[in-house]
Amino acid sequence: MPRFYLDEPLTPGQLVELPPEVAHHIHVVRLVPGDAVTVFNGTGGQYDAVLTEVGKKRATAELRAFDARDVELPYAITLAQGLPEGTKMDWIVEKAVELGVAGVQPLAARRCVVRLSAERAQKKLEHWRGIVVAASEQSGRNLLTAVAEPAEFRDWIGTPAAGPRLLLSPRGTSSLTQWARENGPQAVTLMIGPEGGFTDEEEDAAVRAGAVMVSMGPRVLRTETAALAAVALLGGVWGGM
């Protein structure tokens, strides 16, 4: 059943006007009044709904029963990702949402090729949040992954964390799998460096701030591979995928 995100409070029986881009999509895929759809607002649960009007630029739907459906992981994973070049971050955000990540923290590290001005950072943030919405519609998630404003690594590493920070590095002497088995499901932050990884100085600063340095095995993974492999590995060990 088609799923659509609507950024407003929702209640059963409400007649809602869908965003123009959603109305256009509904028109393109030839949905008609009376067709069933699902509507959610990102705060949890979803609504069965029926289209009441469909035009090229406008569509409305009547909300029916509320469904408290939840497909979230039973533990919160935050992905602290060193900003990669090109469109790799778009791909990482999209797939992280599909895998159930609760939050994404873009990090400006020393080896990052990408340097964002305040204006560009805001535009990127809005773009990534749009990707979150689209990925949530596709994957069936009813809670939106939170994407934080890009932060400088040196500033972010000194801020409090909700749970352990796990720094993925070839210098790690224990594996992420081993750590996950020994410590059990809990809120964690996975720290992934940009192309070339974090510098030794950044890694040492992270460890001094309480991060645990772990490895992903003998092979060196690309930054976009490491991020998603780490999330999937935790899901495999702790369950919930």
Structural features:
241 residues, single chain, alpha/beta, eight-stranded parallel β-sheet, 25% strand, Alpha/beta knot, 13 strands, Ribosomal Protein L25, Chain P, 7 helices, five-stranded mixed β-sheet
Structure, described:
There is one protein chain. The protein is an alpha/beta fold and 241 residues long. It folds into 2 domains: 3-67, Ribosomal Protein L25, Chain P; 77-238, Alpha/beta knot (3-Layer(aba) Sandwich), CATH 3.40.1280. 33% of the residues lie in helices and 25% in strands. The chain contains 7 helices and 13 strands. Strands 6, 7, 8, 9, 10, 11, 12 and 13 form an 8-stranded parallel beta sheet that branches. A 5-stranded mixed beta sheet has the order 1-3-4-5-2. Helix 5 (176-183) runs parallel beside helix 7. It is elongated and about 60 Å long. The mean pLDDT is 94.
Number of strands: 13
Succession of helices and strands = EEHEEEEHEHEEHEEHEHEH
Could you give the distance between the termini?
22 Å
State the CATH topology of the largest domain: Alpha/beta knot
CATH superfamily of the largest domain: SPOUT methyltransferase, trefoil knot domain
* Count of domains: 2
| Main sheet characteristics | 8 strands, parallel
Number of helices: 7
* Known CATH architecture of the largest domain: 3-Layer(aba) Sandwich
- Supply the helix-strand structural class: alpha/beta
Strand content: 15-25%
Quick gist of this model?
The chain is an alpha/beta fold. The protein has 7 helices and 13 strands.
